[in-house]
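Supplementary Methods. Inverse-folding protocol.

Structures were first reduced to a discrete structure-token string of length 227. This string, shown here, constituted the complete conditioning input.
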């Protein structure tokens, strides 16, 4: 049942992302978007399969999200975060097919977008594999004995999922979008991340034993030497 629920959830996520990209474009004749969706599907399905085999309890915890235990301020921050990702996706087709305010990326720079996007997605999956307690919401999982994770990508940055999201959005806009869509997407995402991380770290320092010491050991939140 867990396998079915997981693959149904992943399929729904892929379908939603495809809708967010293709609907604003108002055309299915967009090979670049098709390749983007194909790569996304391969990475996410592969990562989910690995987690189902090695850490099924982490998948179970993510599927059984209970909004009642999520702080109200975190609900707002989570909404802002997902809104920024959605905006980051739909800005590409809007400017490419309709506004055409700025030029699209081309040549090796455009191709690099695929690699940057893939790296970001791999980084997100690496965070989920390293941290079985990682969720999209702030929720101290006392029933599962949640502890501070400082191995893997968490030894590099405190919020590797957000690091992955940044590369994900950058790569997506370079491959599918324009200079304008990239700049606006990063602006929206920066605002969302600043709010989300502030609330998340306040909660973790207060409620998760050892997290404050972890912050002293790993000083970088998202991007080394920047943030």
């Amino acid at each position: 049942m867990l396998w079915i629920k997981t693959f149904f959830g992943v399929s729904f996520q892929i379908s939603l992302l495809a809708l967010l990209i293709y609907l604003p474009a108002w055309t299915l004749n967009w090979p670049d978007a098709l390749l983007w969706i194909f790569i996304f599907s391969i990475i996410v399905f592969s990562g989910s399969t690995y987690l189902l085999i090695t850490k099924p309890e982490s998948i179970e915890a993510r599927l059984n999200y209970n909004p009642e235990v999520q702080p109200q301020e975190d609900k707002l921050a989570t909404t802002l975060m997902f809104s920024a990702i959605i905006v980051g996706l739909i800005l590409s087709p809007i400017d490419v097919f309709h506004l055409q305010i700025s030029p699209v990326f081309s040549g090796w720079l455009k191709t690099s977008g695929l690699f940057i996007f893939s790296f970001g997605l791999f980084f997100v999956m690496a965070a989920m594999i390293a941290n079985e307690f990682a969720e999209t919401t702030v929720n101290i999982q006392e029933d599962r004995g949640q502890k501070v994770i400082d191995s893997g990508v968490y030894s590099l940055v405190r919020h590797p999922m957000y690091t992955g999201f940044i590369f994900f959005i950058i790569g997506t806009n370079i491959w599918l979008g324009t200079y304008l869509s990239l700049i606006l997407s990063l602006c929206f995402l920066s605002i969302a991340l600043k709010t989300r991380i502030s609330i998340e770290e306040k909660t973790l320092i207060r409620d998760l034993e050892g997290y404050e010491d972890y912050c002293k050991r790993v000083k970088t939140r998202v991007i080394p030497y920047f943030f």
